[in-house]
Write a structure and sequence with these properties.
Elements: E1 11-15, H1 31-44, E2 48-51, H2 79-92, E3 95-100, H3 110-117, H4 123-126, E4 130-131, E5 154-158, E6 164-169, H5 184-199, E7 204-207, H6 225-230, H7 245-263, E8 268-271, H8 278-282, E9 292-295, H9 297-300, H10 305-318, E10 327-329, H11 338-341, H12 351-365, E11 369-373, H13 394-399, H14 446-451, H15 456-469, E12 479-480, E13 487-491, E14 496-501, E15 507-508, E16 517-518, E17 526-527, E18 531-536
Parallel strand pairs: 1-2, 1-11, 2-3, 3-7, 7-8, 8-9, 9-10, 10-11
Antiparallel strand pairs: 4-6, 5-6, 12-13, 13-14, 14-18, 15-17, 16-18
Helix pairs in contact: 1-2, 5-7, 12-15
This protein binds alpha-D-glucopyranose (GLC).
């Protein structure tokens, strides 16, 4: 019998821990809250969860600035609580993935502190990218690279003797110094971290900035610094996607295989890989590298049939060609939620909500794995009107721009009741969630969603149940069916047909009969606008 690789068609739920469920009443979600929410996730039917970073951190970038890779920040719990969570998840058959951040750490990491205290040229500094400045007295940064969240990618340090000294590289904020992966101590330290968590029973890792890690060895100027500054994409060809990074993923894969050989449980590595083309992306999921890499082009596509068809076809050709499956994603903690991205108004009651539901059904029908970001299953819209004084995203602080800030998709989840905190925090009634929840979140509370069969929650649950029933829905090839413009329809090498009407006017359905599942009201023979449906094509 063919061994089924669970991750190939898995549906993983991203838990943004600080916004999921707060068990202590301090207004910040925590690991005990995640454990309490597991039955809810079991009911939804996901295969696993990915936990956003919960490690000790000064939280300059909500945990993506790690001060200790092998512990739990007291805000989120402790290692004993972590162990309870893993045990409870295992009992429910839910896999647990951790978020590992190998490109950079926190400026409060002990090794960075040691580097600051040590001399230029020392082994302590070699673990990071320290370099002398240019210009008279070294007052200019060593090169022209921009940081992803605004400003130069270099910060000058004061040497232990009090004089202005070298500069260190940080591709994100100054509080996130980049590791130097050419230093063997760095690789060895990360292997210790992998093994630490694997020994505690985790099922794998989501790898932050997985096309990062290595920089061009000479750190030369970027050919187009203006382009680097304009976008939050990883476009500087000297700072990202260096060939050496693939050796790291081969090694990490081998570590995972070693654990699988011991106990038969397959571990999963999923990379956050931002590279310019689907072909480059495919290189990260070759059979001896990462199992999966998020395919962000679907997330980036406009609500347009041709745009969706193009990115889906490219992914299927380039990534499925490696023997891996495509890893689809429509939402995460860094992006404006689909409901808002696809249309107005702010409370999510309009066309954006219908399109987001249709997109979800499309994603769940595609061959491959899918990731759902918490609240997506509730149809939560982005909170677009958070006042400036509550914003915490370092992008806001560093660019002064509200344009692409990420707080609006991180507002704590509503669970029950009519008023904030909507059951998010179980402490004193006065405990305020760390970001304010709008009144209209009452409409989206999980209790309400579970009770209403027309809710997005039921659509996701039904979609997941059907995936499970149709067994290995994630496998198979995709074949497009002929349709009129503005409509996409495909089968997947089995009997399932999925069709999406990207327009607003109804069109004839591609399959006769009542659909198995639809993202909105769908009479037989008709596919209304902004609607997706699934049929089993028995004819
Ligand atoms: C990734 C994370 C993002 C974080 C950044 C720096 O893109 O998803 O939230 O800010 O890496 O670690």
């Amino acid at each position: 019998m063919n061994r089924h690789h669970w991750w190939r068609d898995a549906v993983i739920y991203q838990v943004y821990v600080r916004s999921f469920l707060d068990s202590t009443g301090d207004g910040i979600g925590d690991l005990a809250g995640v454990r309490a929410g597991l039955p809810y996730l079991k009911k939804l039917g996901v295969d696993g969860i990915w936990l956003s970073p919960f490690y000790p951190s000064p939280q300059h970038d909500h945990g993506y600035d790690v001060a200790d890779y092998r512990d739990v920040d007291p805000v989120f719990g402790d290692l004993a609580e972590f162990d309870l969570l893993v045990t409870a998840a295992r009992r429910l058959g839910i896999k647990v993935l951790l978020d590992i951040v190998p490109n950079h750490c926190s400026n409060e990491h002990p090794w960075f502190r040691e580097a600051l205290a040590a001399a230029p040229g020392s082994p302590e500094r070699a673990r990071f990218h320290f370099a002398d400045g240019r210009g008279p007295d070294g007052t200019e940064p060593p090169n022209n690279w921009h940081a992803m969240f605004g400003g130069p990618a270099w910060t000058r340090v004061t040497e232990p003797d009090g004089r202005p000294g070298q500069w260190y590289l940080h591709m994100f904020t100054p509080e996130q110094p980049d590791w130097n992966w050419r230093d063997p101590e760095v690789a060895a330290e990360f292997e210790r971290t992998l093994r630490f968590w694997l020994d505690r029973g985790v099922d794998g890792f989501r790898i932050d900035v997985a096309a990062g890690l290595f920089k061009h060895p000479e750190l030369p100027d970027s050919p187009d610094p203006e382009a680097d500054a304009r976008t939050r994409d990883s476009v500087n060809p000297l700072a990202w996607n260096q060939p050496e990074v693939h050796d790291v993923w081969r090694h990490w894969r081998a570590v995972c295989e070693e654990y699988t050989a011991r106990d038969g449980r397959e571990r999963l590595l999923v990379g956050e890989v931002s590279v310019p083309t689907a072909r480059e992306h495919a290189r990260y999921v070759r059979p001896d590298e990462l199992h999966q890499a998020f395919f962000f082009d679907l997330l980036g596509a406009q609500w347009d049939a041709d745009a969706f068809r193009k990115v889906i076809s490219e992914a299927m050709e380039d990534i499925a060609g490696t023997g891996s499956t495509v890893t689809w994603v429509l939402n995460n903690h860094d992006q404006v939620r689909t409901v808002t991205r696809y249309g107005e108004p702010a409370d999510g009651s309009g066309i954006g909500a219908a399109r987001a539901r249709a997109a979800a059904l499309l994603m769940l029908a595609l061959p491959g794995a899918a990731y759902i970001y918490q609240g997506e299953e509730l149809g939560l819209p982005e909170v677009v009107d958070l006042p400036d004084d509550v914003l915490t995203d370092p992008i806001f602080r560093r660019t002064g721009s509200r344009a692409r800030i990420r707080d609006g998709c991180r507002v704590p989840l509503p669970w029950s009741g009519q008023a904030s905190p909507f059951g998010f925090t179980s402490g004193a009634e006065s405990a305020k969630p760390w970001l304010p929840q709008p009144e209209y979140f009452a409409e989206y509370a999980t209790h309400r969603a579970l009770a209403d069969t027309r809710s997005s929650w039921h659509l996701y649950r039904d979609g997941l149940q059907l995936r499970a029933a149709l067994h290995q829905l994630g496998e198979g090839t995709l074949r497009w069916l002929d349709t009129q413009p503005g409509v996409l329809a495909f089968t997947r090498g089995d009997d399932l047909v999925c069709a999406v009407n990207f327009g607003t006017a109804p069109v004839p359905a591609p399959v006769a009969g009542t659909p198995l599942l639809a993202s909105g009201p769908c009479p037989p023979g008709v596919l209304p606008g902004s609607t997706a449906a699934w049929w089993i094509d028995g004819s």
